[in-house]
Write a structure and sequence with these properties.
Blueprint lengths: L1 E4 L6 E5 L2 E5 L13 E6 L2 E7 L6 E6 L4 E5 L7 E5 L11 E5 L7 E7 L18 E6 L3 E6 L2 E4 L2 E3 L4 E5 L3 H5 L5 E9 L1 E5 L4 E5 L12 E5 L5 E5 L1 H9 L4 E5 L3 E4 L11 E6 L1
Length: about 280
C-alpha cells in the first residue's frame, strides 16, 4: 500500500505487511496515499511500478461547497469525496464531472461534462448547434499475453500463437457519454520487435485480466504499429458504451509491444469526442 513520498520527495514509502519500504518509483505520477500498488523485484532492488487501483473518472456533484464540492464517484455508488473544482467553474448539485486521479493534481475535477442548469445551446452564426469538444488520455492499468493455457508475460505479443490485451477498467465508459460522437481514437504502441506480417488489433470485453484466453473481436491490420496509431472511431463507439472495454491483438504478425510494467504509457488511448 502506498504511504506517500519520502521526506525529500525522491522515493516512495510503501507498506508491505508490517514493514514500510523506501523504494524508487517508476512512471510519471505518484499513486494516491492508500492505493494498492504493484512492486517489481530486480536483483536486490525493489521498484514501485504504480497503482493497481481502478477508479471511476466520472463523478456527480453531490453538494456544493467552497473551496471544494462533494463528488460522488461513480454516480449512484454512494462513495463521496470532497474535491477541488476547475477555476471559474460554477457547479450545481447533479452536474456530471470528469475526475483526475493522477499526479500532484490527483483528486480534482478537471471539467463539468453535463450541467443541470444547462439550457439548449443557441445556434452558431452558420445555423449549426454549438458543440462541446473534449480530449482525454486513458492509460492502461494492466497488460499481458496468453499462450499455451496461461498468461506468461506482461509484454503484449502480436503473433499467431498469442492472444494479448491492454486493460483499462471501466474508465473510458465512465468518462465518455453514450451519446458522444467520437472524433478520433489513437493507441500508443511501443514495439521492441516489429517484423513479418502486419499485426492485427481489435477490441475485447474485459475490464481486467480474465485469467483465460481473451476473445479479440473487430480485428484489423495495422500498417504502421509504432507510436500513436490511429484506430477506427467505431472502436471508440464500443468503448464509450461498455460494449467493449479494451484493445488487444490476435492471430497475425510478429511484434512485441511494451507492457504496463515497462512503459507507463504502453497501450494508452487518446480519445477526442464532442457532445
Amino acid at each position: 500500500m502506498f504511504a506517500g513520498p519520502s521526506s525529500d520527495g525522491t522515493q516512495a514509502l510503501v507498506n508491505v505487511d508490517d514493514r514500510q519500504l523506501t523504494v524508487p518509483a517508476l512512471g510519471g505520477s505518484w499513486p494516491i496515499v492508500g492505493d494498492r500498488v504493484r512492486l517489481l523485484r530486480v536483483g536486490k532492488q525493489t521498484l514501485l511500478l504504480g497503482s493497481v487501483q481502478q477508479r471511476s473518472t466520472q463523478g456527480r456533484v453531490n453538494a456544493v461547497g467552497s473551496p471544494k464540492c462533494d463528488i460522488e464517484y461513480p454516480p449512484g455508488s454512494g462513495v463521496v469525496e470532497a474535491m477541488s473544482m476547475p477555476k471559474g467553474a460554477t457547479p450545481e448539485v447533479g452536474d456530471l464531472v470528469v475526475i483526475n486521479w493522477d499526479g500532484e493534481a490527483a483528486r480534482t475535477v478537471t471539467a463539468i461534462v453535463s450541467s443541470q442548469s444547462e439550457q439548449p445551446k443557441p445556434p452558431d452564426p452558420g445555423g449549426q448547434p454549438v458543440q462541446t469538444s473534449f480530449r482525454q488520455k486513458f492509460t492502461a492499468g494492466d497488460s499481458g499475453s496468453f499462450q499455451n493455457g496461461r498468461w506468461w508475460t506482461n509484454l503484449v505479443y502480436a503473433s499467431a500463437s498469442n492472444k494479448s490485451a491492454y486493460f483499462y477498467g471501466t474508465k473510458v465508459a465512465d468518462t465518455i457519454p453514450d451519446n458522444a460522437t467520437i472524433d478520433e481514437i489513437l493507441v500508443y504502441l511501443s514495439p521492441t520487435r516489429n517484423s513479418g506480417n502486419q499485426p492485427r488489433i481489435g477490441t475485447h470485453g474485459y475490464t481486467s485480466n480474465p485469467g483465460a484466453a481473451p476473445t479479440i473481436s473487430n480485428l484489423l491490420s495495422l500498417p504502421n504499429a509504432s507510436g500513436w496509431v490511429e484506430l477506427p472511431t467505431s472502436f471508440g463507439d464500443l468503448l464509450k458504451t461498455g460494449a467493449q472495454w479494451g484493445v488487444g491483438f490476435d492471430g497475425a504478425g510478429f511484434a512485441i509491444f511494451r507492457g504496463t510494467q515497462t512503459d507507463g504509457q504502453a497501450g494508452a488511448l487518446d480519445i477526442s469526442w464532442h457532445v
